[in-house]
Amino acid sequence: xxxxxxxxLLAAVPELKDVFEPHSAEESSPKPYAIVLQGDDSEESxxxxxxxxxxxxxxxxxxxxxxxxxxxxxxIAALDKxxxxxxxxxxxSCVYLGSAGQDVVDEEWDAITRGMQFAVMALQPVGTxxxxxxxxxxxxxxxxxxxxxxxxxxxxxxxWPLGYLRPAVMWRVxxxxxxxxxxxxxxxxxxxxxxxxxxxxxxxxxxxxSLVAALGSAIKIPFDLADRRYLTVVDPKANIGADxxxxxxxxxxxxxxxxxxxxxxxxxxxxxxxxxxx
Length: 278
Prior knowledge:
Layout: H1 2-12, E1 19-20, E2 33-45, E3 49-61, H2 65-79, E4 82-85, E5 91-99, E6 104-106, E7 111-113, E8 116-121, H3 137-149, E9 154-157, E10 168-182, E11 185-197, H4 204-218, E12 220-224, E13 229-238, E14 250-259
Parallel strand pairs: 1-2, 9-10
Antiparallel strand pairs: 2-3, 3-7, 3-8, 4-5, 5-8, 6-7, 10-11, 11-14, 12-13, 13-14
Helix pairs in contact: 1-2
């Protein structure tokens, strides 16, 4: 993973003379260069997988921190929300988290620097291919989503798979309730959360607005068109400021009335009737 980041930076930021591990850089190393520090892994959640913190420190000759700012901007552009592939075929995404600390003046090495933090997401598989098809509600909601956003968007069900693509939407079920309506029927209600990840051509906020507006006006979405069955849309909400990867920006409740299976009993073969019983 570290070597993949190194190669990406060298290709995307030609100003960098080299990208080092912490022990490899020396006082005489030509500037500007960057140092990559790898942090701990943490298992975030089933739909994300693993999260690893990586710090990148761009070093420039001691002059003005404006040069550090310019180099930092190019590093962010090269890594933030970009999909990178390792030599073994693993695919991961880097998300810029912000500064790793204050400006630093290294007088011994005659350099100035400032750290940047990136989260490496979905570095390892989470035990699934990212699609849940056993629940027919999820593919139905995914198909409806694709009809709203178009074929440029990838739609995932239940998990972010290893090597997910942007722009993408991932739907997952967060709550299920069953309510009896009558002896012959009951109502199934499911709460869904949508995680929306955009890119430069397809911004996240535009997709969030489009989806929540479409949910608000849809009333119902198709479930089984052959049998004319639909899912009723209730209480769609959007939080534009939420983290699309970890939290999800849209929540909505879908409900459907289901006929209760009728129990089969033996038929009555005959009835005997006697009007006067003594």
